[in-house]
Amino acid sequence: MYKLLLRPILFCFDPEKVHYFTFSLVKFISKIPFVTTIIKAIYVVEDKRLEREVFGLKFKNPVGLAAGFDKDAKLFNELSDFGFGFIEIGTLTPKPQDGNPKKRLFRLKSDSAIINRMGFNNGGVEAAILRLKQNKGVLIGGNIGKNKVTPNEEATNDYVICFNALYDYVDYFVVNVSSPNTPGLRELQDREPLTKLLQTLQDLNATKQKQKPILLKIAPDLTDDQLLDIIGIVNDTKIAGVIATNTTISRDGLTSENKVEVGGLSGKPLTKRSTEVIRFLSEKSNKSFPIIGVGGIHSAEDAIEKLNAGASLVQLYTGFIYEGPQLIKDINKKLLV
């Protein structure tokens, strides 16, 4: 129904406006008696065989929602009703920020892709916490970043602020240094600053009564040598794992007119590269840490391919927008075959 009826209508309008409209719509219909029960009956697949235990956490199924969709933790309870095993909120920054000027979100329909240059637009970590206090049992990842105005040499402070603030309200953390839409952010992926950042968070984590898993989200545009550095950094700092991958700055093979837009590309064009990165990390590290696979998952087969390449869990974003919630069900059903 989504692809035949709803998507053609939604895709006639500005994608950012549609995003906020659908949030309001889902929030509204979820308050109607019995609607949530119906949604769950249609989309949720419950089976013990789908459960996964990864970095000490128990996931009811391995299909999650990637960061960027519910940046401000406004819809995580309702989104979980569509069958997600976990929801990653953010990227959150210490202070609220508007992000980059609009228009900043573009569909590439012929490529089944999206380009965004949102720029960590969010209401700040404290505002998100107020909503996270209303969590009804959803497993939550907290994706954290730095404010645009914070210079790189002070970036660690921003991550520490977010870590401390979110600690009681999320199940795991994701350090985002791989978005292409905050100037200079990807420079933090270099070995020295990244090691310092992750070690600082790990040292802080060690002071807590119960440590929370810390993951690193990486770009798909890293070279093999840089990926080997990532493996070394993960092993040195002993963080819990890696999310592979964020959006790409590559435009290879695109046909849509919007391919000229600046920003991070997600969707089908990223399918192959993200899987390559997952396989490289898994093989070269001898599977020494868990990987969450994300990038270009538009079918159950795409998800299975990433799991076979070495991912322990997968996440959806653009595929969820193009294929709808049926994709979550399809993946979980396929895993039971």
From TrEMBL:
Pathway: Pyrimidine metabolism; UMP biosynthesis via de novo pathway; orotate from (S)-dihydroorotate (quinone route): step 1/1
Subcellular location: Cell membrane; Membrane
Membrane topology note: Peripheral membrane protein
Lineage: Bacteria, Pseudomonadati, Bacteroidota, Flavobacteriia, Flavobacteriales
InterPro entries registered for this protein in UniProt: Aldolase_TIM (IPR013785), DHO_dehydrogenase (IPR050074), Dihydroorotate_DH_1_2 (IPR012135), Dihydroorotate_DH_2 (IPR005719), Dihydroorotate_DH_cat (IPR005720), Dihydroorotate_DH_CS (IPR001295)
GO CC field: cytoplasm; plasma membrane
Catalysed reaction equations from the record: (S)-dihydroorotate + a quinone = orotate + a quinol
Family that this chain belongs to: Belongs to the dihydroorotate dehydrogenase family. Type 2 subfamily.
Domain of life assignment: Bacteria
EC number per UniProt: 1.3.5.2
UniProt keyword list: Cell membrane, Flavoprotein, FMN, Membrane, Oxidoreductase, Pyrimidine biosynthesis
Gene assigned in the entry: pyrD
Name the record gives this protein: Dihydroorotate dehydrogenase (quinone)
GO biological process, one term: 'de novo' pyrimidine nucleobase biosynthetic process
